[in-house]
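From the thread on structure requests for the teaching lab: each student submitted one protein with a one-line request. Submission from student K.M.:

"Model Class II flagellar assembly regulator from Pseudosulfitobacter koreensis, tokens only."
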Amino acid sequence: MTDNERKSTALAGRDSNGRFASGSGNIGRPKGSRNRVSQKAMQEIKNMSFDALRVLKENLDRNDTKAAIFVLEKILPNQRTVELDGADVGSIVSALIDGTVSPDEARTISMSIARLKEIDEMDVLEERLAQIEELLKG
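Reply posted by the TA:
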């Protein structure tokens, strides 16, 4: 193969800057698809938690707390779950006052609830906008 043939083969389906041209037929991998190696790796990671619990029990039987702490830090979630009486300011303040939640947790909960309310308000506005557009069409 000559140099010119190699260049023309390498530039097939590309624009003048050497980038792949749109509509060149090479759409690539579909969004969200995973290859077999990734799927196998994820399954191995999931299976490790069972092995980690077995190792944890063995180490606890030998009074090895360092290994237990390490394994628990890897398995358990970083934040704890908090159950409140309600999703209003009064419930958050009550939980803060009685020590159920820390100030940082109260702030995080408050910010999460505020964000959820904003999302809910956006949904209502979208519905109202759709109704107005429908009235303008009709």
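TA comment: The CA atoms of residues 85 and 91 lie 6 Å apart. The longest helix spans residues 103-137.
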